Automatic annotation (TrEMBL):
Comp. bias intervals (Polar residues): 921-930
Regions that span the bilayer: 1246-1268
Function text: Exhibits phosphohistidine phosphatase activity.
Highest taxon listed in the record's lineage: Eukaryota
Organism: Zosterops borbonicus
Membership in a protein family: Belongs to the janus family.
Keywords: Disulfide bond, Membrane, Transmembrane, Transmembrane helix
Annotated protein name in UniProt: 14 kDa phosphohistidine phosphatase
PROSITE patterns per the UniProt record, alphabetical: LDLRA_1 (PS01209), LDLRA_2 (PS50068), MAM_2 (PS50060)
Amino acid sequence: MAGEALSRVPDVQIDGDGVFKYVLVRVSGAGAPAKDVVRGHGWAEYHADLFERTAEELARHGLSCECLGGGRVSHRPQERKIHVYGYSVGFGRADHAVTTEKLRAEYPDYEITWADEGSILPSGSVVVNSCSSAAEQLCNFVCDCSDCSDENQCGYLRHSAVLGTPFTCDLEDSDCGWQDVGTSAYGWVRGRASLATWGVGPHSDHTMGTDVGWFLVTTSPPEKTEATAWLMSPEMQEAAATCEIRAWYHLSGSWLNQTEQPVLHLAVAHRDDVVGLWQSPERSREGWHQLVAYPGRITGQFQLIFSLTQPPLCGAEVALDDIMFRNCGLPKVGQQLCGAQERLCQRGSCVALRRLCDGTDDCGDGWDEDTAQCKNFTHCSFDHDLCSWEAVAGAPVWGRNTSLNLGTSYGIPTRDHSNNSRAGFFLHVSRAPTAQAGGAAQLSSPTFQATNSCYLVLYCHLHGSATSNLSISYVTSSTKRLMRERMGDLGSTWVRERVDFNVTEPFKVLIEGVAGRGGTVAIDDLILSPGCVKEQDKPVVLLPSQGDGSPCAAEEVACDSGGCIAAELACDFADMCTDGSDEKLCGTTTFESGAGGWHDVSMGQLRWGLQKVTEMFLCPGTVLALETGEGQMVGPAKARSPPLGPSGPACTMEMSYHIHSDPQGFLAISVTDPTTGTTHLAWQTQGHSSTTGARVRVPLGERSRPFQVELLALVDLQGSASVRVDNMTFEQCHVDAASPTAAELSCNFERDMCGWYQDLSSDFKWVLSTGQGQGSDHTTGSGYFLSVDPSVPWSHGQRALLLTSLQEPATAPRCLSFWYRLAGPQIGTLNLKLWLEGGEEEVLWTRRGSQGSIWHRAWTTLPATGQQRYQVAFEVLHDGFLGDVGLDDIMQTAGACGAELSCSFEAEGCGLAAGTKDTWQRQSNSTGTTAGPGADHTTGTSTGHYMVVDTGRASLPAGHTAALTSQPYQLSVSAQCLTFWYQLSAGTPGSLSVFVEQSTERRKVLSISTMEGSNWHRSQVTIQPEGDWQVVFEAEGAGADHGYIALDDLHVLDGACPEPASCDFEQDTCGWSSPSDPRLHGFAWGWKSAITLAKYPGPEQDHTLGTRNGHYLHFDTSVLGARGTSALLESPPLPATTASCLRFWYHMDIPEHLGSGELRVTLRSPAGQRTVWSVAGHRSRGWRGALLPVQSPAEFQISFEITTRRWPMEGTVALDDIAYSAGVGCHSSPEGPAAEKPWGSFVAEVVLGLLLALVIVALGAAGGWYWLKQRRLASGTPAESNSPPGFDNITFRDVRTG
């Protein structure tokens, strides 16, 4: 019967079209062989919906089933193609190969493919061209289908739901059509940080800023060989002249500190040519950086190509994310109404009169550049010669050349402007990085008649140096007047410029170029309007003679007063020239005598210029204001300071500003590092549909390399909008500038930051906080503290630094204490570091992973630094993404700190001293010289540290001992609990004894000579000294050839130790912890009080005290999903037992419709694991108790695990008052699986129990309840809750797995 029913089950049932989820299900019946079937339908919101429907249908026929995994199917019947890919969050990834074979049998005439996540997905993973647009309308940056699906899988998708931008590939849903086209093993895949090896590649994507976001990344390159990874886009069509490509790239690898570095290239393949658009700077650092490329007007089809070549002996990895295409579509076809200053293009769009015959196809059909229309313009493309222009003899001189001949150096143009080709000609002047500065290369026009209608359009290219300069002037017989000047690095692109001449006598146009070190200045397409008429009488207009160039060497600049200084000393916020001229044009200005060093680097239709004003918001006079620009691009205006600095931590910039704009307009300040090409936003204000003005103070902070400040603004100048700035100043910016509070390391952050400063070179930052759902400050409970939240969107930096300014040398050690908080299910690392001037950094203290939503006190000794100055820094690493870090009440006192009450050995040895040299050593497995554990206990990795002693006979002969002694601990209460983790090697490692020393008395309190298994074990002992005391760990050799004894995670707590694995969570977590695995980003249970926190929800009172001040463990199940579907809480290892009892109280607040998971208790041992209790997600209506017998023939751990079968599972789970009674059975607990009790009888039992308890209390002493409360764990009877309680063995299971 079962076999017949099984044979009737179809192997495949999927939708006939579309993209949908699927599950692979194994179906079985009594006495019949099982078979696998595929089920996939678009109606299923979750994979669990598919499986549950399938299981119900099969059960009606007497068949059972299990889900083997899931994924997605793209079914395209019109193309007869099926693609299988993806995975299920709840069930895991199905075996797509098995699924594919099933589908091939069902669809024999189809092309059926499959791919695991992390590989390039085909175009079938999103809807493409739903309206069947013509081929020439696909991927042309114009939406022709109503859903814009004709612009999907084009190297971009029609829209990024996360970023809210059109024509963007954020890689969250697909690869957008990008393909790996390399021929070697060095290639590209779609991946994410949570699938990568920790420490290699990005720790987070750029879109989400988390470890579950997706990006494209190169695979591991072959070792010791040169290889290139190639990535190509689909075919795109018709890029407009305004097209702008932006993407974020992340470089990493062993090359970061090498001289020969890999370079990421972006090129465009058009017709038979491949033209470079952009390449990464020659010096880069790890992290996400933005690239901006301008392909120019491209007719017909083209493709983009990213490539990275790995030099030999140089492991290189690059990731790409958030590839955006802005303003790339041609103007919309169709008749439009044009303005008075516009003309109608042939294709129906409008073009400004000022854009006619300017060398750029603005219409999109070439009409505005038609030869007949532009016949009266004089156009020189330099393709054949210099036309009527003359390169003035001298040094340097303008050279005519092509990109093919000049090569691919960083500053060289990659193509000309006229033809957008490597073979096209242009004029250029370059300067090698070591060449001495010379004069300007000059290009002169013929002599023109006096005019008021002559203008020049040209395209300039300034790249590779922040000090390059291009100027356009006119020269008459009596004067030379500067008309336009371009300075700095404009990027690898051609920028349109227009200059109008109104001259009353004959004149020449003079174009001068000065290339900065390593830079190139180039010009192309010089177009003179019909109003530029050559003078026939040829009056003599002589060009002014040039000087002999700079008297200074290549790496120097001249002072106005004479003499030279090193170039890096200019604009470093200190007068090095006797007349201060080296700081004269460095950004501090009122604009009354000029721009003060600021220069416009805009490339669009807005630019910055000097204007006279009389408005009330700014003092009357000259200001820097936004005005109409001549560039061909679309975007904000940008002005840039000269290279400044380096700067000190107190550096700030101040300016007055005025903005009148709608809310879409803005004014912003950013800081860029020209060495690495990185830019960070420092300040921004939006328009408010009204005029606003103020003086703003913008912290710039400490910067170790020269930097430039940028002013960005975007408003619509067609109306009455305006933006103006004035009175720019830089304060306390010199590297040695001392703030009055620089030495104030003690700080509670209630008034200010004292002597601490923010590192502003990253957008991952500390912020001054009052809690906002995380919890209150430590000082007052309602004040300020510093916090870091790694889950804030678009915090992409690698670390957040809080640091002091340079401190004077310290002649004696000092103690630095502070209060910290590390909260959240996936929080990263907090370090305290010491930086010696000119030396390496030293980690003084570190913690990683959740320590609960509770303030903890820590301290460390700041050592004497001799003659060296130093800085102290708190560092949060961006290696966790769910949680927050808090810091408060920093205190510095004289003298070294006392014994540390908590020591993980990650930073240093915590003052523990070895009695004999070369016995006990602090080490990690990855760097240690002594045999020891493969991983420490704190981090669970080979890089984590511990203390270890070699007990082999060569190091510690039989009977010999090695002692490790702590500093004195101060007695604070009558009893204290010492806990530590230890590991003894296999074989005969010897023994470990623990002594307590007080005055001259030494008392053994613990001895360990054997250990079951090879894991870390926890031990504890209650200390009841009469005063200050020390602990001595003594290892004794046993004469074996090899062996070791290791220690980690030493803690001293107030109060007697609880029984092993028993805890009320009021003092600490008693050894209960969530396993740490950085590669899997495991979720941690939290530890908090019942005080309500919006960010960390939980019960409003604990079970132990029944108040909001009591503590418990908790977990918010809503975080389960793409990062993982379970959260573990494990006890310390416990010895084998034949009859023990576990009691605990749990609290659930999970709505029924979101309760697809469960809380279960599992016993884990080397022999396997056994689930002994579970309860499905629900609302528990208060704390509920459970007790269950525990049996294990071998050493084991108790594990509480929250799992979800599908995503989401919304709600909280909490645990309190865990009591493990070793060797004591649960007399009321059933020995086998127990049926669920009816709720009514359950409550009745509880009520009777409570009444009986009340009678006993009434007959007993008045303090009886208090006595019971104190014995809550030892007595084996869970205490009452304030909500309906009861013992709960709802789904007792005994499931054994090997």
